[in-house]
Amino acid sequence: MSSGALLPVLILAVMVLTFGALLIVGTGLLGPRKVIKSAAKEMPYECGLPGQETKDTKVSVRFYLTAILFILFDIEIIFMYPWAIQYMDSLKDGSGGYMLGVMGVFVGLFVIGLIWEVKSKALDWK
Amino acid sequence: MPQIQLGLGVDSTETIINVIKMFALFLLMVQLVPLLVWVERRGSAFIQNRYGPNRVGPLGLLQLLADAVKFLFKEEFRPKKGVAFMYYFAPIMALLPGALSFASIPLSVPITLQGENWGPYNFVLQGYDLGIGIVFILGISSLGVYSLLMAGWGSSNKYSLMGALRASAQAISYELALSLSLVGILMVYGTFSFTEIVAQQQGPLTFNFMGQQQVWSFLPNWGIFYQPLGALLFFAATFAEANRLPFDLPEAEGELVAGFHTEYAGFKLLMFYIGEYGHMLVASCLLATFYFGGYNIPGVTPAEVTAFFASYVGEGNLSQILTAVTYHVSLLLRVLLFLWVFIHVRWTLPRFRYDQLMDLGWKTMLPWALFNACATAVILWLFQS
Amino acid sequence: MTLTAQDLLFYILGGLSLASALGVLLMTNPIYSALCLALTMVSLAGLYASMQAWFVAGVQLIVYAGAVMVLFVMVLMLFDLKSEIKAFSRGAVAGFMKLVAVGLMTGAFLAAIYNSADTLLGTSLAAHVDGTVSTKALAQLLFGKYVFAFEAMGVLLLIIAIGAVALSRIEGGTHADE
Amino acid sequence: MPMNSLIDVGLSHYLALSAALFAIGMLGVLMRRNVIVMMMSIELMLNAVNLTFIAFSRFRDNMDGQAMVFFVMTIAAAEAAVGLALAVTIFKRFREVNIRYFEHLKG
């Protein structure tokens, strides 16, 4: 099996999706047929309180700010992967110091960004 | 019809064997849920000094079979205002990350089987061997967030949407610490593929200190001795990724009823559990592969084990298969140990509050992971020169 | 005439990415179009992997499908955007003109590709490239030839991190007094 | 290797696919009214360009294409982050994510 072939991944994904779909359709068919429809049952579950469908729930800025900061720091980590992979080789052929310097500057910017985020209370979840 | 060369095997029999092996590995993960739920209920009972399920079958083992059958026959329910497609696709999507990641982890030593008519065929207990193991698993586990968001949005319930957003915010914050702790592993091993990482962990602990080789033969050459802090960060981050206590606030009963899977019942809820336990299984396998020597048995090489079985069973397929089984059992012991740690922590540690949880992720785990990566780089540079 | 795994992959993933790209365009509910775009990103990652660009396929999965699209879906879910009736801009004539313009442009691209099909072919292709080896070659390039661009990326990401937080804190605005 | 041989997939097959994706992305930007969907179409166009880079890097056998894809991804993600932060701020102010409201920014 040539290592690195992508087709098995697709085959497994299709198998998993059909397995899940069969499960859902199967439980649908196996369950009791005469489903008692009642408004109370259909309402979203809110621990017994009558559902108040307020127009716009209080929108917290924190969620999408965390997602934005996640993207930016994730890319900085992804840039570290190629560097980490060849770090041992560059140590062996003597260019370790240069590699360390290049990544030191990059990680320095990463740390400055992180410190600024923490200090600017962007990540406080109060 | 053009003859299709799939990447799966030399001839059609090998391809069929590989496809069956892949599905068997997926079923191995799916049937793990009843086992782990049983261990969890008995274990928590043991911790809280009570019995746990013991009515149905010996030691309550069949309790899970009874639950599964009960779940199968539950009434099909969907909230009226729910978004049908997303409501049904979310549990299916929850299965995908665990299955695809588990299939890429090597579970045993590759062996070669030889029959009279079918040629030498090397068999490895692994779904598929992608050259880039680590990056693939990180990519697939970052897709797990979609099943949370779809479940939250599909059940059109204010609380489950909030639970889904909280769970995904937590999952992505801890993914940073997870991928940063892997940078240390990449530096030490210099490769992405799992088989090479496990191969580099054989033999006694050898590292070069100030230029000359140091061999400590009493310690195995495991990753934990190179990356102790990395292992701790990795394990803690996988707790948060799998929404396990102490990081399971989004699903906590007290907080948001049951978070994103409030409106789910029956087998759909069980599929979310399969996803969660699958994530736990992958995390334990990764921890064993990176830091505890994968399927290596310290002090013994695969050739010796095959020779040992050959002396009893005679040269041929059986001794090869027995070697593969022993190496698989050695990995399984480590994985079960870590799964027990997952369960043990659930019943001993209290739950974090949400702001503490996010602060821990961003303000302590991420800086420590960064420190670990930089410290590894500097130490490697010092030791190397 | 053997259909190798790579051709099969190209047609499966190419079809999947085209279908989901059309889904992004045609779905009126923005959340469905965001999920279709996520599916496009995943199928493109598969296409990169089928072209033996292993590390970039992984990065595409992690960065695009796993981070950028999660941000889009989260923003759409936070703001509770139902499917809009007037999803497409009005004006049949304007719409038709846009379609013609894009059609002409794509036709020009395809004609250029078709005519230059034989000149574009490069050297013989390595059937299988190992993921780690190709990433090391990429790293040599990234820290050798493009080291300045690499540092510029670090600065860009720092600026965006500060900018996004500042943007989310704006209270007033030109019409704040209304 | 003219394009019409459908069996062995060459460089021009990938280029044709990325041209189609680019056209769909452009149509998305021109036709849709919702700002966030327009930004998604821009992401789609950037991905089509990435596909071309990877195709050339694969069939001309040099790695510069993959390094360029790295940088395009960073810039696209940064653009998406700032674009969405802007759209969210405007949405909170005007309660509407329609492109027409953006003229208020003329100031």
Describe the structure.
- Chain A has helices at 7-30, 39-42, 61-85, 87-92, 96-119.
- Chain A has 2 domains: 7-41; 61-119.
- Chain A is flat and about 75 Å long.
- Helix content of chain A is 66%, strand content 0%.
- Chain C has 178 residues and is mainly α.
- Chain C has a domain at 1-87: NADH-ubiquinone/plastoquinone oxidoreductase chain 6, subunit NuoJ (Four Helix Bundle (Hemerythrin (Met), subunit A)), CATH 1.20.120.
- The termini of chain C are far apart.
- Chain C has helices at 5-26, 30-50, 54-78, 92-115, 131-144, 147-168; one strand at residues 3-4.
- Chain D starts with 10 loop residues before the first helix and ends in a 13-residue tail after the last helix.
- By secondary structure, chain D is mostly helical.
- Chain D is elongated, with a radius of gyration of 18 Å.
- Chains in contact: A-B, A-C, A-D, B-C, C-D.
- At the B-C interface, strand 1, helix 4, helix 5 and helix 6 of B face strand 1, helix 2, helix 3 and helix 5 of C.
- Strand 1 (4-5) of chain B pairs parallel with strand 1 (3-4) of chain C, so a sheet runs across the interface.
Rounded average pLDDT of chain D: 84
Tell me the strand percentage band of chain A: under 5%
Low-confidence stretches of chain D: none
Mean pLDDT of chain A: 80
Query: Helix tally of chain A?
Result: 5
The class by helix and strand makeup of chain D works out as mainly alpha
Oligomer: heterotetramer
Biggest interface = C-D, 86 and 74 residues
- Shape, per Cα inertia axes of chain D: elongated
So what's the overall shape of chain A?
flat
Assigned CATH class of chain D: Mainly Alpha
Strand content of chain D: under 5%
The profile of the biggest β sheet of chain A is: none
Kindly state the percentage of residues in helix of chain A: 55-70%
Radius of gyration of chain A, taken over Cα atoms and rounded to an integer in Å: 26 Å
CATH topology descriptor of chain D: Helix Hairpins
Instruction: Tell me the distance between the termini of chain A.
Output: 53 Å
Whole-number count of domains of chain D:
1
What helical percentage do the residues of chain D reach? over 70%
What series of H and E elements makes up the topology of chain A? Answer: HHHHH
Number of domains of chain A: 2
